[in-house]
């Protein structure tokens, strides 16, 4: 029987001084990982234990500025080397008992104390600003053949022969007494594939330039670490969520990630005269275009998403008036306020981080349109859209609906398809969310056709994915018995977390891991029947620092075993394949 223990302290593979120094670099207390120690990071990013042990020496370390891609090396002074030694000692005492993944190391080191003051683009002119930027020479455009070549190259890097074999075999594969069942929709969505391919191609096309990314390109630690290894630099964030663009120079190349970037960030990059490579997912751009249309009509954008998610932060920057609702409960709260009024101060307090400054719920909710963060549930977004259309019908009458509600078609089905595939794996079906308020309104408006239900042609990500991976040869198999499930994806990936939620809801043991190194323990030459994974109770921020993870022993039961496999939309097939090979190796098998 599997047993779990909370993993808060794990011993690294070595306490060699070189490993210790690398750890010091990773947690933000030393110079970047070159022998010359050429890059420094902020003292404020140090762990408290380091601050206590080396408070006087830390000032020496922070005197150096990052120069990773500048072509020059800033040498550390003797006092700075002393600071590094003190840092290494302090960090060793704190972290010798814990292991950090390479991606976790880089994530911590990216903190900065500087926050760039961005120009503020007039929200009434964001459409013309973006149009002019896209038409400018600063906005790099890939040719059709160049893009096709980039996608082909990506498949050679991110593809997996094992996963391809499973797809060809009806999404299942038996090796010895282990049977893998792959969800019929999983892993890289087309928008993510496109973004990664464009980023890699940009690195090849601009080999001698500094290439920056304004955020994580996608929510996958392996991909982002690979990009660091290839020479990409990521714009650093502050502890408060600001960004430090100060090291970006004229002529550099800056990549806008798959989630997009705010219009103010675009304005800064335009002023800095950089070359912009825009990998924003077309599905996300479609949401922006819909927000622009609602703004032109004087409507407030109701955005179904998480107010601090990178994509929603970008989307709301194109709106003059907006409110972000995370779920059906928040949507019903807003809907009830529209219909019945309420406590204005309570409303503003509840949505203080989800509305712009000066938002007035008594006037700004008279005309609305519903948009969405593309990683949210399709079914919930559809219901929220229908809810607000019926709310406006009740308040203003069906004859006036066009003046008070605009219907958007911004739903990408990639997230929903992955979740539907999980339900199918467990012999269940997705149940759309319910709303008592919507049910009441629907009962009042029987026979009334909604704009949100007419001509809702959905964008199909699966068609695009099949075009790059090969059409799926699905075979009906008995999926009623899955012993446990591997959920593979970044710990800060919301769509991956939703997949774990489904498994837990169906009482199927499931392990959320961000890479193959989480299986089998620390010694690849002596693999054990253990897995280190993120439980639902651990926050993404903690998990990315290897905090709050659990270690489950004997997770692979004796005898024949059926393993369900799925992965988030930012997880390459290569990573999934590596995880399965590692699991087989624990069992003494090889595919």
Describe what you observe in this structure.
There is one protein chain. The protein has 22 helices and 20 strands. The protein has 591 residues and is α/β, with parallel strands linked by helices. The strands form five sheets. Strands 3-11-10-6-7 form a five-stranded parallel beta sheet. A five-stranded mixed beta sheet has the order 4-5-20-16-17, sandwiched between helices. β10, α10 and β11 form a beta-alpha-beta unit. α1 crosses α3 and α5 crosses α10. The longest helix is centred in the middle third of the chain and has 19 residues.
SSE map:
Blueprint: E1 3-7, H1 17-26, H2 48-61, H3 78-95, H4 102-109, E2 111-112, H5 126-135, E3 139-140, H6 144-158, H7 161-168, E4 172-175, E5 178-182, H8 190-205, E6 211-213, H9 221-229, E7 232-234, E8 236-238, E9 243-244, E10 253-256, H10 263-271, E11 275-278, H11 282-296, E12 300-304, H12 310-316, E13 322-325, H13 328-340, H14 344-350, E14 368-372, H15 378-396, H16 401-404, E15 405-406, H17 414-425, H18 436-444, H19 461-469, E16 484-488, H20 494-505, E17 510-513, E18 530-533, H21 540-543, E19 549-553, E20 561-567, H22 573-586
Parallel strand pairs: 2-8, 3-11, 5-20, 6-7, 6-10, 10-11, 12-13, 12-14, 14-15, 16-17, 16-20
Antiparallel strand pairs: 1-19, 4-5, 8-9, 18-19
Number of DSSP strand runs: 20
Strand order of the largest sheet: 3-11-10-6-7
Cα-atom Rg, whole angstroms? 25 Å
What is the count of helical runs? 22
How far the N terminus sits from the C terminus, by CA atoms, comes to 25 Å
Strand percentage lies at 5-15%
Low-confidence stretches: 7-109
Q: Sum up the overall morphology in one term.
A: globular
Average residue pLDDT: 81
Percent helix: 40-55%
């Amino acid at each position: 029987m599997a047993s779990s223990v909370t993993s808060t302290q794990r011993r690294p593979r070595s306490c060699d001084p070189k490993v210790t120094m690398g750890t010091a670099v990773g947690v933000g207390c030393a110079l970047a990982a070159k022998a010359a120690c050429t890059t420094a990071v902020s003292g404020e990013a140090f762990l408290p234990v380091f601050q206590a042990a080396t408070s006087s020496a830390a000032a020496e370390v922070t005197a150096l500025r990052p120069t990773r891609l500048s072509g020059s090396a800033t040498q550390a002074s003797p006092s700075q080397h002393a600071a590094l030694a003190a840092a290494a000692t302090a960090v060793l005492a704190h972290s010798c008992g814990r292991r950090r993944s390479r991606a976790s190391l880089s994530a911590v080191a990216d903190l900065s104390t500087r926050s760039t003051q961005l120009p503020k683009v007039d929200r009434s002119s964001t459409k013309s600003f973006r149009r002019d930027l896209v038409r400018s020479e600063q906005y790099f455009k890939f040719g059709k053949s160049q893009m096709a070549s980039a996608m082909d190259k990506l498949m050679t890097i991110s593809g997996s022969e094992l996963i391809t074999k499973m797809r060809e075999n009806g999404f299942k594969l038996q090796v010895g007494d282990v049977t893998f069942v792959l969800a019929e929709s999983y892993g890289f969505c087309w928008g993510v594939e496109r973004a990664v391919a464009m980023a890699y191609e940009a690195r090849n096309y601009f080999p001698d330039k500094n290439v920056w990314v304004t955020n994580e390109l996608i929510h996958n630690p392996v991909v982002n670490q690979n990009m660091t290894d290839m020479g990409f630099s990521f714009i650093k964030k502050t502890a408060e969520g600001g960004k430090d663009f100060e090291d970006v120079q004229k002529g550099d190349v800056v990549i806008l990630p798959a989630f997009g970037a705010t219009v103010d960030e675009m304005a800064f990059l335009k002023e800095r005269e950089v070359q912009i490579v825009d990998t924003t997912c077309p599905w996300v751009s479609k949401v922006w275009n819909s927000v622009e249309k609602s703004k032109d009509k004087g409507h407030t954008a109701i955005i179904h998403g998480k107010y601090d998610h990178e994509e929603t932060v970008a989307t709301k920057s194109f709106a003059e008036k907006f409110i972000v609702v995370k779920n059906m409960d928040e949507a019903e709260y807003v809907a009830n306020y529209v219909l019945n009024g309420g406590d204005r101060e309570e409303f503003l307090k509840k949505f203080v981080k989800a509305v712009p400054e000066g938002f007035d719920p008594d006037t700004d909710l008279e005309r609305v349109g519903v948009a969405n963060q593309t990683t949210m549930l399709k079914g919930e977004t559809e219901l929220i859209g229908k809810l607000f259309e019926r709310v406006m019908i009740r308040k203003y009458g069906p004859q006036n609906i066009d003046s008070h509600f605009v219907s958007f078609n911004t739903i990408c089905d990639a997230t929903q398809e992955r979740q539907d595939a999980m339900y199918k794996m467990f012999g269940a079906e997705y149940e759309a969310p319910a709303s008592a308020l919507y049910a009441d309104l629907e009962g009042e408006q029987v026979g009334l056709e909604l704009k949100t239900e007419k001509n809702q042609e959905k964008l199909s990500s699966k068609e695009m994915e099949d075009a790059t991976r090969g059409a799926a040869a699905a075979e009906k198999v008995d999926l009623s018995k899955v012993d446990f499930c591997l959920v593979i994806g970044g710990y800060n990936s919301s769509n991956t977390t939703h997949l774990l939620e489904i498994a837990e809801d169906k009482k199927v043991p499931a392990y959320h891991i961000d890479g193959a190194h989480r299986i089998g323990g620390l010694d690849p030459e002596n693999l054990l029947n253990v897995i280190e994974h993120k439980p639902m109770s651990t926050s993404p921020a903690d998990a990315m620092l290897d905090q709050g993870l659990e270690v489950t022993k004997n997770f692979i039961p004796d005898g024949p075993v059926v393993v369900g496999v799925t992965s988030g939309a930012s997880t390459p097939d290569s990573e999934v394949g590596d995880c399965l090979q590692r699991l087989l190796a624990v069992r003494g098998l090889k595919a």
